[in-house]
Amino acid sequence: MRTRNIFVIALLFTLYTVVCAASGGTIKGRIVDAETKAPLSGASIMVLGTDIGAASDMDGYFRIQNVPPGSYSVRGSYIGYKEQIKTEVIVRSTRETEIYYELRAQVLQTNDVVVTSGYFESGDPLAINNHNFSYEEVRRAPGSAGDISRILFALPSVAKVDDQKNSLIVRGGNPMENGFIIDDIEVPNINHFPSQGSTGGAVGLINVDLLRDVSFSPGGFSAVYGDKLSSIVNMSFREGSRNRIEGQLDFSLMGIGGVLEGPLSEKGSWMLSVRQSYIEQLIKIVDVGSSIAPKYGDYQFKAVYDLSPGQTLSLLSIGGYDQLSTDNQVAEENKMTAFAHQNIYEQTTGISLKSFWSKNAYSITSVAFTTDFYKEDYFETTTQNLLFKNRSSERTLKLRNNNFLKLMDIFSVDFGIDAKLFRHSYDNFYGQRTLQNGSIKPASSLVKDVREYMAGGYINLTVRPIPNVTLTLGGRGDYFSATENSVFSPRASMVYEFSDITSLTFSTGIYYQNLPLLLLAQRSSANQLSEMKAEHYGLSFSHLLSSDTRLTLEVYQKNYSRFPMNPATPTQFMLDEMQAGANFLGDYSDLKSNGKARTWGVEFMIQKKLAKDFYGVVSGTYFRSTYTDILGKERDRTFDNQYILNISGGYKLDDSWEFSARWVIAGGIPYTPFDANLSTIAGMGISRDEDVNSKRYSPYHSLNIRADKRFSFGSSNLVVFVSVWNAYNNQNVAQYYWNQKDNKEGTIYQWGLLPIIGLEYEF
Q1: pTM for the whole thing?
Q2: For residue 529, pLDDT beyond 70
Q3: Which domains, from first to last, does the chain contain?
Q4: CA 212, 216, 220 angle in degrees (round to 5)?
Q5: What percent of the residues of the chain are helix, what percent strand, and what percent coil, each to the nearest 5?
Q6: 3-state secondary structure 129-158
Q7: β-strand 84-91 against 53-55: which pairing, if any?
Q8: Contact between residue 478 and residue 454 where contact means Cβ atoms under 8 Å apart
Q9: What is the per-residue pLDDT across 170-198, written as a single tens digit (0 to 9) for each?
């Protein structure tokens, strides 16, 4: 009898597995107008290569059921609009896959049969070179490790200068010039171990499993965005499942985490991600060139609720913690001049309300609160003297309101306001130290509460005087209480479409950015300084070589002015040196807003989307980024690589196997050499002010490879991946330093060969 029961149970389990394996998945989503966000009723959604499809309902929603498990391209189309094709739509048995379409109206009227641009999404009409990435493109990019910042390194506009940092160097600008938006909520940083007053960090904070898509604008972005000089990274989180509880577990040698999601009554959904690092275990197993073991964790939460058919309320919360503790022995082993004990906590929580007033008008209003806490102590390796004590708390209340109104087919306007209220407290100590030029900087303290605010507003007018021309005129005004300055930023662009596959765009604008409050707090008279300024000029050419392959060419120039300069170090471009080194250490009471810089460059990119089994990107740039020091001499900026070439691509053998690789070569960044004689006498690294950025590191080059294997088990799915960074173990120089123990110059290298093995389990 017992044997019979076991047989029956086994048979039932087998039948269940077969049924589940045979069960198809569901593709759901929404299709809307890209400008007005109004739903497109009766739009066609087709799964390419099959006869499966659906039509959208009155609210633009669609649902395609019983789709066999696999990877698909799905086309969304509507009469009078440019079609759009979503690639790498992964369908899993008994699960739901969500996609979202924003279709743009077809402005050209022609009887010719042309190749459509359906594989490429249009972004901000004022952004001359907007790049979009889907979730799958971010997830499986070689060398990205599911990190948003690292996938951007494949673009021609972004330079990579340090394997251990996610700092975005966009067209020669420093990391503080970049802004990040998630679901209309501004977040100060998207990385763990952030640099105070800036962006960047060691590893990504955002879980890409929550992403719907990512949009990156390296210049010429519209007047909607203020207080940034170089780029905007705009991310959208997907919604959680509205039908059932679903989950996912992720594990690799770098960390473990999971995602849980489900319905919120009948009108909404929720989604929660929690992750914890295990990178210290990786360092124990694999020699990566460092024995430093940071610990970090993060969470992300999103909830969506439909108040009415035309109003949706959403809650977004993102937070993380970072811990790092080293001693002088570890610092000596890793050739560090200082060691630290760090505890950093960061959190942003916001609520946004999206309201559709008519089919041609909508508004988005958001309120968010950001808190950042720093508890840091830095010590000199040889003497163990305290160099820096940081006890900072930074709190920011943010308000944004964006509105759009389409008055007629050829004319639309968007406008809005934004404001920030800062409540920061600093209790810092800066120890006496010898600078690289040999001068002594005395000890100082900063104990101060900062209460400041900024407010701004913008308007954009878009008009199409003839079918193939789009003009956008915009501007924004901003006020910052710390400097007591008001500024106006005019911006404009013109797009000329030769055909559905070829276009030319010119864009120009003025951009301002406030100085970090940590820097201003060290002055008794911050109102004597000005906001940093950049003038953008760009010309971009785009042409579809085929329906899934696009060529873009671009030339640009950025003229910087009103940057802070320190008379005590007249040959340095102060903010660049801070970003590359010790950040905002010491007092800067004599700063002047007279710094000037210039960046110009030429970029190209050939991108092939995954239409069948192959995808790839070839991108390159040549640029120069220079500044004029106080003495009037032109010098290379710290992040001036001069040239970058990226080659990346992948091949899907079938629905279960995928192989990809990325190779990059970039010119070495400038550095200031040591004076060997003075350094030997002083027993520490001493450089000459007149030699700032006069030498360059060797060119950087590295190969990253990856292999993915997907398994299906009824209603569950498993993805196993193996990734190898710096596959041929090239010794890229990170920096030269002065080895005080041996009293000679030494070399610190970037990461060597680094294997990463991980898995994702969906249930």
Answers
A1: 0.88
A2: yes
A3: 2-103 (2.60.40.1120), 131-762 (2.40.170.20)
A4: 145
A5: 10, 55, 35
A6: CCEEEEHHHHHCCCCCCCCHHHHHCCCCCE
A7: unpaired
A8: yes
A9: 998 888 899 999 999 999 999 888 888 77
